[in-house]
Amino acid sequence: MVNSLSLRRRSAVLTAATLVAGLMSVATAPPVTAAPPVTAADLNGDFDSTAVGTVPAGWSVTGETGDVTVQDVQGTVDRSLRLRDTSTSAPVTARTSFGSTASTVVAGFRLRAAQTSATIGVHLDGAGGHDVTVAMGTDGHLYTYNGTEYVDLGTYTPGRWYDIRVVADPSSGTADLYIDGSRRARRLSFRTADKTLDALQAGISTPSTGTAWLDDVRTTTESGPQGWSYLGQVGPRPALQIGASELLVGAETLDRDYTSYPAFSPYLGKLGATGVRLQGGWAKTEKTKGVYDWTWLDRIVDDARAQGLKPWIQLSYGNGIYSGGGGSGLGGQLPSSDEALKAWDAWVQAMVNRYKDRVTEWEVWNEPNLAGIPAANYTDFYIRTAALARAAQPGAVVFGQEAGIDVTYAQNFLTLLSQKGGSGLLGGISYHPYNADPDDAWTYQQVAKLKTLVDQYAPGAVIRQGENGAPSTSGSFGALGDTDWTELSQSKWFLRRVLNDLGRNVSTSVFSISDLNYPGKVNTKGLLRTGTDKSVRYAKPSFYAVQALASVFDSTLEPLLGYRWSAAPATALTVQAFANRTSGRQVVGVWSATGKPTETNDRTPTDFTFTGGDFSYPVYVDLRTGAIYDIPAANWSAQNGTYTFKGIPVYDSPVLIADRSTIKF
What we know:
Elements: H1 4-27, E1 44-45, E2 60-62, E3 67-72, E4 79-85, E5 92-101, E6 104-113, E7 120-126, E8 129-136, E9 141-146, E10 149-155, E11 162-169, E12 174-179, E13 182-189, E14 197-204, E15 210-222, E16 230-233, H2 239-242, E17 247-250, H3 261-271, E18 275-279, H4 282-285, H5 295-306, E19 310-315, H6 338-355, E20 361-364, H7 375-392, E21 397-403, H8 407-419, E22 428-432, H9 441-457, E23 462-465, H10 487-503, E24 507-510, E25 516-518, E26 521-523, E27 528-530, E28 536-539, H11 541-552, E29 557-559, E30 564-568, E31 573-580, E32 586-592, E33 604-611, E34 618-622, E35 627-630, E36 636-639, E37 642-650, E38 655-659
Parallel strand pairs: 17-18, 17-24, 18-19, 19-20, 20-21, 21-22, 22-23, 23-24
Antiparallel strand pairs: 1-15, 2-5, 3-4, 4-15, 5-14, 6-11, 6-15, 7-8, 7-14, 8-9, 9-10, 11-12, 12-13, 16-35, 25-26, 27-28, 29-31, 30-33, 31-32, 32-38, 33-37, 34-35, 34-38, 36-37
C-alpha cells in the first residue's frame, strides 16, 4: 500500500521533471524580451529603483501569457521582480547572464510564492542547462537536486520570503545550499557535466499557473588557488553545537526598538556566536513609576539562551518618567536626583533578582566618556550599581565601560575605584575601538595599556572588546559612517577585527546582528540587511564570514602568543596563530594588513615559514567565502618542527593555513 506521503513525493518528482523539461526547452531559445549580459560581480538587483511595470536591465523574459515585471510589493515600500504565469502550456521565465566563468559562483536571492499550487524554480545555469536548482513544489515543499536525485528541503509557506544562498563550484561540480542562514544541503552534485556557469534563471513551470516574487539578487565570482583541489565549505555550527567560545554578537538598541528581535531571532543561534550583548532598558521596562513590565526582555533572554547564547546585559539608560532620570539614549547622562537614583537602585535590584538564574554578566552604562560624564561621577555610579548587583547575585561579573580605548579615563576610573575600596567589584572593562583599519597598531598598543592597568588595579578582572563593527554601505549612521563601505569591505573588516582580538586572547563582540533603524536614518553595521520595517531581507556576506569563523574558533582552540614566523615577500602582514588544546594541531590566520579593507580581492603568492608548527594535513581556508582547498604536497614541507608553505594566496582578508582536523566541513 502506498501512503499519501509517498504519493506527494512522487507527484513532486514528476512535477519537478516537468519543470526541468519546460525550462530547459527555453534555456537556449531566443528570449521574447532581451537585455545585454552583466558580469556576476555587477549583478546586484534589489529592483527598488526600477520603474514599476518594466523589465529590469540585464534580464530577459519569456512567456506566452502572463508577465515578468517589477512591481510594488503590497503592504511594503519594497519593489520586487514579479513572475506571473497564467498559462498551462508554456513556462514564464526571467533570466540574467553574467558571462561564462569556471570560478565559484555565490548567488543570493529572496524568493516568495503566492501559493503552493505552482512549481517555481531558480537555477544556476551552464551551457548544458540547469546545474543547481532550488524550487518550491506543488506539494508545499522546498526541494533541490543532488545530480538527478530529488532532495526534500522541508515545507514552505506562501506569502513568506525565503533568504536563499547557493555556493556553486564548477571545478568540483558541487554546490552548497543555504536557506535563512542555515546550510540545508552540502556537496550537491551538479545536474549536468558543466565546468562553467553563465546565468541565473527563475521560472514557473509549464503545467502550473501562479505568481512568484524574486528580490535582492546578488551574484559574485570567487577565484580559488589555481590548480588546488576544492574540498568544500566550512560547515556552519549553531551556538548550541559550539557550546563555548570567546565570540559574542551585539543585539543592542532593542530597548529603544531600533531593531526587531522576532525578525532576527531565526538567525541568532545559527551565527555561532555563544554570547549576546543586550541593553536592559530601564525606560522600556518601567513606564509607570514602580511598575515593571519584563515581558519584552523575558522573551529575548529565554529565546537567546534556548539557542545557546549566554546573555550579557547592560544596565542602562536613564528614565524620563523621573525628574533628573538621566538620558534614555546614546550619550545620555546618569540619573542625578534623589528620586531617580532610588528608582534606579530599585530597578537594578529587581533586574538582577529576576535574571540571576539565567544571566551572570552585567555592564554598567554605555560609553560614559562619550557622554562627557566625569570619571569621578561614573566611578561612584559604578560602585553603587555593582554593589547592588553583587548583593543580589554574589557571583555576578560586572563590567565597567568606555567608548574607544580611553586610557586616561580608564586610569582615572580604576584609581578612584581603588581609593574607594571598589576594585573587588570590577569583573572587567569593555571598550569600543571604532577605526577603519582593524589592524591599526595604535589600537592594540592602547589595548595593552588598558590590560596593564586592569591587572594593576583589579587583578583577576578582564578586558573585553564589547562593541565594534563597520558599515556595509556609504552614508551609514554612526561610527565610520563618513567612509565608503560595501558588503565586501565590511566582511573583511569583521574577520580582521575578530581574529586580531582572539589572537590576543581578548573576548570580542561583533556589532551588530541586524541593521539598526534609527528615526530617519539607518546604521548598516548589521550582519543582516533589514527593511524599513526592521524585517530581515537577507543575511549579508559578513554573516556567512563570521559564521565560518565561529565554526572554527571555538573553545577547543587557544591562541599562540609570540608565534614565530617569517614571510616572503615581507610586506605588511598580520599573522595570528592558534592550536587545538588537545592535539596541538594548528590554525594560522594570515592577511595583508594594509589599512582599511579594499574593494578588490587581488591575491599575492606568499611563502611562509612557521617555526614550531604542527600540521599533519594542512588545508587552505578563505574565511570570507568559507571555501576550503587542499594545499598540494609540492607547496609545503616540514623538518624538525619548521614548516614551509610556498605560494599561499594572501589578500586583505584572513585566510587560514590549518590542519584539516581543526576544520568542520
